[in-house]
Amino acid sequence: MRVATAHDVKAAILKRLNDPDSVRWDTELSDDEATVVCVTFGAKNAFGAMMRRHTVYRAGRLSDTAADWNARCANRRLNDLSAIW
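User: That's the sequence. What structure does it adopt?
Assistant: Structure tokens below.
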């Protein structure tokens, strides 16, 4: 379940990017039920500069806000899915 959810989250992130081919995944983390998935990655912005991003999936939506990242991902015990990809 966690792997399928994380895969779907990454696919949704790719759809939002200006240059999906530029993405470099850093970490993919999830809670035991995969109700929260936290992803860090780098990708080019509209100006071609590489930017580091943090995205949280929760309750069927993606969020890039620091508040969501801090509340759901920072300093939490989550399962590392990075090695699976």
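Residues 2-84 form one domain.
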